[in-house]
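One record is set out below.
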Amino acid sequence: MIAKENCWDPQMSTELVEHILLFKLFDSMIKDELPGYSSSADIFRINAGDMESLMALDLSSGLEQPSLPENNRLIDIICKHTRIVKYKKGDVIIKQGDYGNSAFFIASGKVAVILPPGLPEYQLEQPSDQKIGLLETVKKMWQQPCYPEQRGLQKSNSAYSARERQLHLDNVNDALKKYEHAELHSGEMFGEVGALGRTARTSTIVAEIYCELLEIRWQGLRDLRLLNSDFRKAIDDLYQKNSLLVHLYSLPLFSSLSNSEILLIAEHASFRTYGSFEWQADYKNKLESNSLTSQKSETLIVAEGGCADSIYLVSSGFARVSYKYNNGHQVLEYLGKGDIYGLETIIYNWKNNSRLHVKTSLYALGYADIIQIPGSIIERMVLPAMNGNEMDSYLSSELLQLFAKQKENSPVEELNTNEAVLDFMSDYHFINGSSTMLIDTDRCTRCDECVTACAVGHNNNPRFNRHGYRYDHFMVANACMHCKDPVCMIGCPTSAIQRNPSEGQIIINDELCIGCSTCANSCPYENISMVEARDSNGLVMRDEETQKPILKATKCNLCIDQPGGPACERACPHDALERIDIQDLPVMIGWMNR
């Protein structure tokens, strides 16, 4: 589908750069960045016309070719982070639930955004990651390299490559008649929510007719936002608007409402970002100064004792719920994308005609995108349609029991293990992990079978260290947690570190890695190592020009190609090691309390 010449390349031809600059998307920047040109159309000495007509022009002939400035920041961003992609009618551009690092600007054509609940899974089936078979697994055990970090024996696993998986709907017209959808046309952008928020795609987007799109990697979006204030405002406004609507459509709370009712709620809702999107720098500074737990600086969203007049939806990032305890705060729970704060109190007050105030505080952990909806809207449009069982499920929550006491200084029971674990996990921001390695040190005999199994599965290159921060006799090991908010991806100049599009593991493409150490420096948990690559003779490989050792980033890939999953977990003879989604509290607490 995507021609090889359309892939991003720092050596992209001037002709293709000129083609891309034709897009009106860059009009706001060209005046400042390309002196002498007032709009993108001026580059070709033609009048601005209909976008589809412009795209139909043969750009290789018949136009006066301008002389583009060298070493220009805008040109550099376009070369490195954009490409032109073409989709046939029915091609799936974005699949709901997949991860992606790009946004798309529609140059010509029309796309359909399938609204939740979206297309059934059987219509969007795609091949899963290729797992190695049993014979190949045994063969691999007998053909381990003699030296650690040996490279060049084989190509990187296909799961590491930036795959172009093309899905297609043969009956796209029938599907669009059957499922609710919205249409986007030339000049509009989509995909910025997943690209900027580092989150899974929230909707499936299909080419309704033949389309030509400008794909912009998130690194390009970031650089373009810094380059031009008008572009930054436009992208931020679009991000907030789309994040709000997509989130409202995805919540079961609003599943019984019509489109017009959800749009009405959106008009009364507000979108706010709390904390810093690049929170890891502050986290690492506190970690190095041993002040992480003593100097909590999370951004306050809702203060304990305030009026219960709104509900708060977590669109991305994390937040913690806590209450005053002695001279500090005790964590009750933490919230992630899709969670709601304040609904229990709104329901309680509405059902009992009371005015219970907020009994807890809500803080952003690192950063959080929050959608605030007035309680009056919820009482008018949502609660009357909620059945008794749904209400009872909220009113029976542990959090509401604390609220319902309605005593300013009600005694708090002795802290239990669950609450202390929550405090530990939120202090060190381990709630970010979707596959965190927990080790029960009372069961662990230090046999290192987990490390050996990891090395066997990765060509004699173990991908984790069996040490880390501890709570009681439990340790969070230094192994990649495959974070929900993977800040390690923020600065990678080559997109060598990326999400597996189907399952969400964070993986490194060894062939694209240039050894710049950006990901290792960005990881707040020190779970990425820089190693010296060796050849088949065990000698350190060196750069031909500088003679410096060639470095590669390495980390756990969750045994993405192994038939049985993480080898470390399978190899432990004492059931002392588990990979756990920290936000799945029942599973985590259940495992710890075995």
